[in-house]
Design brief:
The chain is built from three helices and nine strands. It has helices at about 30-40, 40-45, 145-165, and strands at about 1-5, 10-15, 20-25, 55-60, 65-75, 80-90, 95-100, 110-120, 125-135.
Length: about 170
């Protein structure tokens, strides 16, 4: 368990299958605002990705079958394009989407299913996210530890953005 006083978040991470990461965080913000941080491309671009990451492109059509496209710049000169599709959208408490990262030759390197569930109690929003590696290429065989670290840093950034917005 990790406590982060800066954004009043708690994270519990489990890796039950080796291909799945479950992250449980709380944010001192209303659920509707947390949901909009996932569904408004301007907001998502501010926090998506690990620390030092910026996003030059963030487009989304938030509906079942709608597309998501993010171009990430992790700060090391790389450019990472992530594309996907929304599988389920239930306003204001659930999102399910799949993302794919391709290599420079448009070969799929990593396919991930994300399931986000939100609940609110007295202005505190609990976010539980399951990240499941659906497919990975042998060349890109990333570990769930890297996925876990990336999402933990993303959620730290999300917490900072939420603090700015509610204060």
């Amino acid at each position: 368990m990790k406590n982060n006083d800066e954004n009043s978040a708690t994270a519990v991470v489990a890796n039950p299958t080796g291909k799945q990461v479950i992250i449980d965080r709380t944010f001192e913000a209303p659920m509707a605002l947390v949901f909009s941080m996932w569904t408004n491309p301007e907001y998502l671009a501010r926090w998506w990705g690990p620390k030092n990451n910026t996003n030059s492109v963030c487009r989304m059509d938030v509906r079942p079958g709608g597309a998501i496209s993010i171009t990430m710049h992790p700060g090391d000169g790389q450019m990472i394009e992530v594309n996907g599709v929304f599988d389920e959208v239930r306003i204001p408490d659930k999102l399910v989407f799949t993302t794919v990262k391709n290599d420079a030759y448009s070969e799929e390197q990593l396919k991930v299913l994300h399931t986000i569930n939100l609940s609110e109690n007295n202005g505190i929003t609990r976010l539980i996210m399951c990240v499941e590696v659906v497919r990975t290429s042998p060349v890109f065989n990333t570990s769930c530890q890297h996925i876990e670290q990336g999402w933990e840093q993303s959620f730290d950034r999300l917490g900072e953005e939420l603090l700015r917005m509610v204060n």
